[in-house]
Amino acid sequence: MFASTSHSTSDSNSDSTSDSASAPTSAQRSTRHPTGQPPGLPRRLPLATLLLWLLALATSALPMLPQANLTTLVTAFWSYDSSHYASVMAHFSWAPRIAVAILIGCGLGLAGAVTQQVLGNPIASPTTLGVEAGGQFGVTLATLYAPALLAFSPDLAAIAGGLLAIGLVIALTWRLGFSPVTVILAGLVITFFMGALNMGFLLLQGEWLGNLFIWGAGSLVQNNWSQFLELWPRVLVLGIALVLLMRPLELLQLGSESAHGLGARVDALRLLALFLVVLMSATVVSRVGVVAFVGLAAPVLARLLGARTLRSRLAWSTLLGGGLLLLADTLAQWATTWGNGSLVPTGTTTALIGGPIILLALRGVNNTHHMPGDPSGPASFVPRRRPTGVAAGILLLVLLTTIIAAMGWSPGIEGWRWTPPADWADAWNWRGPRLLAAITAGVALGLAGTIIQRMTGNVMASPEVLGISGGSALVMVAMVLLGAQVGRAGQLAAGTLGAAAALMLLMLLARRHRFAGNQLLLGGVALYVFMDAGLRLVMASGGTVAAQLLNWMYGSTWLVSESEALALAAVMTVLIAVTTLAVRALTLLPLGETPASSLGLNVQRARILLLVLAAVLTAAATVVIGPLSFVGLMAPHLARVMGQQTVGRQLVTAALAGAALLALADYLARVVLYPNQLPAGLLAALVGGLYFLWGLSRHGRR
Q: Counting Cβ atoms within 10 Å, is residue 626 exposed (0-12), middle (13-18) or buried (19+)?
């Protein structure tokens, strides 16, 4: 059912991450490396690492220097003067925080380098594979249902959740040879899904989980040495275990078949390495929250600075990870001071560092489908074509039934009761606007998802994954953090501007690849990083405004007024008419750039205009339903499953499917937990995540 993200013309071209593809020539080596320096190690790598460490240490020590001299700070790592307050503070707070940051950063840098080697993926990390979200999910469940387990060891719950997340990624992408794009998208969707589960628990059990989500934003605050003393043996043992796998891991660069021919047990090696990565990441998450974007940033930075061999990547990723996390934590402390004491989590600053590094890493990612040397995968599932009238009729019946139920059959103080149609005019004030907004947003996401999937040639694409929804959300987060007081009209305008800004960034990212699909999708991953950083900052700040924003983020349709719902419906009427003009371009683009150009289509301009249309559709829906509903992913798939293969038919069916999905989600979110309510977008995200996992599990079935 789920087609491959992109097929390279040959396996030799698909190895975008191999050392041989990126290693300099002998002439370049002779000019870059002076006599006595190891070949393949550019001078800029140790120099940049040294500068990073000096900067991190200097900035971390600077706030303490007015209170204590340099000698006091150095000796604070092993002793203190009880009569000197600054010495006590340095020993019990400043020094252990630096030690924990370096320890965790080194461990995560090493884990990230191993993850990228195992998957042959330059932007793989525990974060992008969902390990952190899974770890937080495990801690959430343990907090609610097994607090004794947390008292015994918080690591166990986090490790179980991390293993669940990465296990799903492996199970879903194993048969695809760990395609870089497919693995990242699968990890991102699982992160969305588990994040939605975490948020659902937070909204329903906020009195128990509020502090947990503040912790989950990532903080390295210390008040003694106990956490460091508890962590360092575990990080050291896991680090040694990962290093011992270095020699067999080097064989993976030859491809699965070649490595197997040389005696390597490839599957067992991958599983063991990833298991150790999960142990390392989950152990950190259980203690200090989500800071593991360092596990992505450090290996990528090591590659960009010239670390070519696996041995050098592991070593320099470890060193860079320690320096990066120390610098990020120092920036978080400074930002907290500048923000009049309002907590800025370390997880936010690490994400803001990781986002730009993802953008740099995208330059080296080609449209690969398989690991080098792996055989091509099986054919994708193609459903049988069916008449459009039948599919549209079924969806209209579902939509009509949902509307009748939403308006007439609802729980109340005296239990479930039927509201006769004669009273629907009164019921409209409470139920109608949110239902109309949900239907309209569903149509918009169904059309946007179809456009994006057709344009990119990737049936796992959606407005959520592409990052356009995240652009709208990020602007809303920024408005809340800045204290801007705007009405709903201002929110609508801000959301549209955010989507447009995300669109422009995606265009810049994909320009050198002539707006090819995978670069757009991976650019969306980078946008998600920034959105996630903002969300964690909001969760850490707490307060009523933050709670309202989180409700909107997950699609609380009860915030919509009648005028807003009608205005959105009017806008969608215009956008539907515009979408009909895009049918020809969407039909020709999947043929390839050369055939489409020969048929008279200006490919580059068509892609730009389609992106603009998708951005406007997405922004219109996002301000109503939030950025993480997955409807833009589900609706086009449902249209394909119902046998609608041509562009026009898929657009019509996907629009109806999106309307039916969100209408049903809004109704169920209102009545399932009555008198409590779930955001409709949250419920849709949970269902959409399950649908994605089910659909990807069918990938390649004949």
A: buried
